[in-house]
Design brief:
Blueprint: H1 8-22, H2 27-39, H3 43-56, H4 61-74, H5 82-94, H6 102-118, H7 122-135, H8 140-176
Length: about 180
Amino acid sequence: MLEKANMYSDELKWYANYSTLRGIKDEVYYYKTASIAANAKEGAIAKAISMEYITAFPDKPNGYSFNVKAARLLDTANNLGVLFETVTLQNQFLSKDMTKNKQAMVNNYYTMMGYYNETKAYEQAIAMCDKVLELIPAEPQTLKIKESLTKNWEIIKKMQSGGNQKAATDTTQIKKG
């Protein structure tokens, strides 16, 4: 009833009490608790439960999915690195069946690409483009993004090498003077 009424916080409390009385932590417990916590926007609880889910059932995909949902709740700006860690963990799991999980992996690579782009780690962002292109060769959007990232990376490299050359020239000028 609480779920149908979208009262997820109350449902989470009720389900915690019910689970304590039941005393069994099976896959249904982890699935239901992580699902309710994610719906209640309780990122910390969803993260903790999903990690327990992954530990208890490492070969089941739902723990990894809930872990990513929880990270999205906790790291909305993707500046804590939590989301990056969770999609990396999920991709390790998904790589067991690349054909079946191709789209989920591509989505995760795009998340990682965005993180690297925001932190100006263009070389790593380009590597994520390459991972997408391994799964979907010649994908037009990824090719455009890779081209843009490559230009940005080359500009950064020129600035860094130009700055080092200028610093060396300045040092030589000081020694001569």
